[in-house]
Amino acid sequence: MDLQLNGKVAFVTGAGQGVGRRICLDLAAEGVRVAVNDLFEERARTVVREIEAIGGQAHAAVADITQEQQVHAAIAAAEQALGPIDILVNNAGVLVERREKGGPAPLFVETDSEGWKRIVDLNVFGMLHCCKAVLPGMRERSHGKIINIMSEAGRAGEARLAVYSGAKAAMLGFAKAIAREHGQHCINVNVIALGAVSHEGIREGALAPTSTPQNNERLSKMLNAYPIARGLQRLACPEDVSGMVCLLASDRAAFVTGQSIGISGGFVMQ
């Protein structure tokens, strides 16, 4: 299927590895010029080089998306290098509690406001900053695609991840509201909800690409939470996500807006 994306311009946040990286590569394979955003310059430039190696055009958009001025500067530089932004993918997000503390996340009553702020700043304000930066141009051109990558924790809630669940739920509520506000401007806004995803940025544990149900007991147990994973004998990988992003970024999905689509192997069904 020709998605007719050739010549479009995308800005993808958190794109230096994992799901974001794969989204960039697959959009580029469809002919999209890609602004690769990451906090770390070398990660962004590595993905740019990968895109250029397959004949695509890309720009390293290094910025901390929690900082509004950095976002506006990065968007302006990307548009100067590639052209007006047609597609925004709000992919950046991190599970701060687990990655900093290790092991099970704490209960909400055991957390502090500093930790809440880090989670909300990245997952909510980062998204808001990026949307605010691209929406005026999309409105003026009467065309645009915004895709938020959230977690199933935001659709179902997850114990010990209360603030994270709330922040991800905000991504969904915001997307629905913006879809209503800007449908008249032919701007589609949708959300993809993920469960556990294995990718190259994770070096050890159940989510590492080298882990299998045979060599990792925790992974074997995790598969039971995802109906399709029991059959496939694996968790989601970035390629499971990037194809849906490409579809939603195209006019093949022109009549899809304000929707949340789970790519989580049936972890949440609704």
Q: What is the total tally of β strands? A: 7
- The fraction of residues in strands falls at 5-15%
CATH topology of the largest domain: Rossmann fold
Give the strand order, joined by hyphens, for the main sheet. Answer: 3-2-1-4-5-6-7
Poorly predicted segments: none
Task: Please tell me the total number of domains.
Answer: 2
Radius of gyration: 18 Å
Quick one: overall form?
globular
Q: Specify the CATH class of the largest domain.
A: Alpha Beta
List SSEs in N-to-C order.
EHEHEHEHHEHHEHHHE
The CATH superfamily of the largest domain is identified as NAD(P)-binding Rossmann-like Domain
Largest sheet: 7 strands, parallel
Family: Belongs to the short-chain dehydrogenases/reductases (SDR) family.
InterPro entries: NAD(P)-bd_dom_sf (IPR036291), Sc_DH/Rdtase_CS (IPR020904), SDR_fam (IPR002347)
Protein name: Short-chain dehydrogenase/reductase SDR
Organism: Verminephrobacter eiseniae (strain EF01-2)
Characterise the protein shown here.
The protein has 270 residues and is α/β, with parallel strands linked by helices. It has 2 domains: 9-197 and 237-263, Rossmann fold; 203-235, no CATH class. It has 10 helices and 7 strands. The chain has helices spanning 18-29, 41-53, 68-82, 96-101, 113-141, 153-156, 162-182, 217-222, 227-232, 238-249, and strands at residues 9-12, 33-38, 58-62, 87-90, 144-151, 187-194, 260-263. It has a 7-stranded parallel beta sheet, with helices on both faces. The protein starts with 8 loop residues before the first strand and ends in a 7-residue tail after the last strand.
